UniProtKB/TrEMBL annotation:
<feature type="coiled-coil region">
    <location>
        <begin position="31"/>
        <end position="65"/>
    </location>
</feature>
<feature type="coiled-coil region">
    <location>
        <begin position="112"/>
        <end position="267"/>
    </location>
</feature>
<feature type="compositionally biased region" description="Polar residues">
    <location>
        <begin position="88"/>
        <end position="101"/>
    </location>
</feature>
<keyword id="KW-0175">Coiled coil</keyword>
<feature type="region of interest" description="Disordered">
    <location>
        <begin position="70"/>
        <end position="101"/>
    </location>
</feature>
<protein>
    <submittedName>
        <fullName>Uncharacterized protein</fullName>
    </submittedName>
</protein>
Length: 275
């Protein structure tokens, strides 16, 4: 049960770590996408500014050219009296050039206004993107702080689990040691039982061989009993005679001991009197 709980907690920790990594990877990818978009917008704005500067320069050059044409108009009027019929054609050419210059200038103004509006939109979009990036960074910073706190909490839980695992491992090792000791004792006991079984088998075999000799032994025993009966009778008489002699000797010894005891008492009385 403890192992199952440990595996479940470990799986949860791995899931949380995987989720944190996925979130961080998503944040990094989103930040890279925003940065790439901002870079493209800034680059496009710079290109538009360059194009706007070139158009303004071109407009200024056209204005200068128009002024030169306006200034050169009186001089050409004095020459008209000398040249006669060429005056009308020169005026028509100057009028055509002025109209063409105005049309180009109008077109340039419209182009400049379009580029200016586009540049303004790009600047607005850039500011919005920068604000989004700032908001995103603030949001991600808060999420990272929360994730960091969660990770610290998980680190504490992991440390607690490691301590529990260490205790469990110690208990398992102790149980394993006891089981190994018990298994060794059981093996020794089984070995002894096997040896005893072998010894019993030998004894059984010996007993069976002896049982086979039992009839012959019975005959020998009966013959021995018959012989013993005669011997017992002879020995019985001898034992009775020896017992009688022993009793007489014991009676004599008792009498001698009584006499010795009486002498000891007399000597003790004499000793007391002398004292």
């Amino acid at each position: 049960m403890a192992t199952l709980s440990t595996n479940t907690r470990k799986q949860k920790e791995e899931d949380i770590e995987r989720l944190v990594k996925c979130r961080l990877r998503s944040e990094i990818e989103a930040r890279k996408a925003v940065e790439s978009t901002m870079k493209r917008a800034v680059h496009e704005a710079r290109e538009l500014k360059k194009e706007l500067v070139l158009l303004r320069q071109e407009k200024e050059e056209l204005r200068l050219a128009a002024r030169k044409n306006v200034v050169s108009a009186p001089g050409s009027g004095d020459k008209e009296t000398a040249r006669g019929g060429s005056v009308g054609s020169n005026r028509d050419n100057q009028t055509g050039k002025q109209g063409s210059n105005k049309a180009v200038e109008l077109k340039l103004r419209q182009h400049i206004q379009h580029l200016t509006a586009r540049n303004t939109d790009l600047e607005t979009n850039t500011k919005e993107l920068m604000q989004q990036v700032s908001d995103l960074e603030a949001q991600k910073a808060a999420e990272i702080a929360q994730l960091t706190a969660d990770l610290e909490e998980k680190d504490r839980e992991i440390a607690s689990l490691q301590a529990d695992l260490k205790k469990t491992k110690f208990a398992v090792d102790e149980t394993k040691r006891k089981c190994q000791k018990m298994l060794k004792e059981k093996r020794e006991e089984a070995q002894r039982a096997l040896q005893e079984n072998e010894q019993l088998a030998r004894c059984t075999k010996t007993l069976q061989s002896q049982l086979a000799l039992l009839p012959q032994l019975k005959k020998q025993l009966e013959h021995a009993k018959e012989k013993r009966a005669d011997v017992v009778e002879v020995w019985q008489k001898k034992l009775e005679q020896r017992d009688e002699a022993f009793l007489r000797e014991e009676e004599a010894n008792k009498q001698k001991l009584a006499e010795k005891a009486a002498q000891i008492v007399e000597l003790a009385d004499e000793k007391e009197q002398l004292q």
